[in-house]
Amino acid sequence: MRKYITTFQTIKKKLKNFILLMTFLSFMNKLITSLQNPLVKQIIVLEAKPRERKVQNLIIIEGLREIRLALTTGFTITSLLYCREIINDKELQSLLSQTISTFEMAEVTSEVYNRLAYRKDSGGVIAIARPGRILFSDIKLSLNPLILVLESVEKPGNLGAVLRTADAANLDAVIICDPQTDIYNPNAIRASLGAIFTMPVVTTSTEEAISWLKSNKVKMFGTALTANHYYHEVHFREPTAIIMGSETSGLSQKWLDEAELLIKIPMRGKIDSMNVSTSAAVVVFEALRQRNFQ
């Protein structure tokens, strides 16, 4: 039996390599030089318009690292553009080896690539991908989970920065309630450095989030300027969700009512609040400190 399994695995590997080679060879001579190319125009539209991303159910992923992370978490690439002046054939083949799916691929000139790319150090590749949707049922909680909840997050850059913190802390999940921005906004993906693909990120309503947290016996700590307790004075050693509101209006009344305790960060200056991504990092890593970073 082991012999047949080994043979099957060998055949599967050879088939994958064959598909990779055919994909690479079939498009290596296709060069796009014009911004009027339909694929280039589609990327420009998807980058700029959230409605188009929603209607087409497609997102833009820029960067070698980000595309690798997306592929490892089940996102499906539908098209990929690369600039040979930035990425070499070896790096490109290595990227393609992560999937056996075939997709449209073409080389673009540096002029076209620089029009599409926001970062000069993104690795010379831009992909159109079909995003996956994570549900509460997909989350596998640890024995002592630590979860971050964001309500009505507005700025994609802030969302991306929070997700980097979540990845650094290896949180169980990030729950985004009633988002005011597309979580796959290109700015959010860039700001997260691909962490949006490494974290279980669930978008939902405040009511559904509260119900799920309660059903999993997770304590809810809401952050609010009106709180009577400082964040470092409470215990985060049990299953915990840290709830962050929007920078403009804070937490909704529903969260203020349902939270077991409201906490705040001491403000010693003349401004009464910090950026939400900074605040999240402060509280999350205090929780980790109390857990001995385990």
Describe the structure concisely for a colleague.
The chain is 42% helix and 19% strand.
Account of the protein in words:
β6, α7 (156-169) and β7 form a beta-alpha-beta unit. This protein is elongated. The longest helix is centred in the N-terminal third of the chain and has 26 residues, at 2-27. By secondary structure, the chain is of the alpha/beta class. The model has no long low-confidence stretch (mean pLDDT 89). The chain starts with a helix and ends with a helix. It has 12 helices and 12 strands. It has 2 domains: 2-130, Ribosomal protein L30/S12 (60s Ribosomal Protein L30, Chain: A), CATH 3.30.1330; 136-290, Alpha/beta knot (3-Layer(aba) Sandwich). The relative contact order is 0.12. It has helices at residues 2-27, 38-48, 50-56, 64-72, 89-96, 110-116, 156-169, 186-192, 195-198, 206-215, 253-258, 276-290; strands at residues 31-32, 59-62, 76-82, 104-108, 125-130, 146-151, 173-177, 201-204, 219-223, 229-230, 240-244, 261-264. It is 42% helix and 19% strand. Strands 8-7-6-11-9-12-10 form a 7-stranded parallel sheet, sandwiched between helices. A 5-stranded mixed sheet has the order 1-4-3-5-2, with helices on both faces.
Write the layout of secondary structure elements.
Elements: H1 2-27, E1 31-32, H2 38-48, H3 50-56, E2 59-62, H4 64-72, E3 76-82, H5 89-96, E4 104-108, H6 110-116, E5 125-130, E6 146-151, H7 156-169, E7 173-177, H8 186-192, H9 195-198, E8 201-204, H10 206-215, E9 219-223, E10 229-230, E11 240-244, H11 253-258, E12 261-264, H12 276-290
Parallel strand pairs: 1-4, 3-4, 6-7, 6-11, 7-8, 9-11, 9-12, 10-12
Antiparallel strand pairs: 2-5, 3-5
Helix pairs in contact: 2-3, 7-8, 7-12
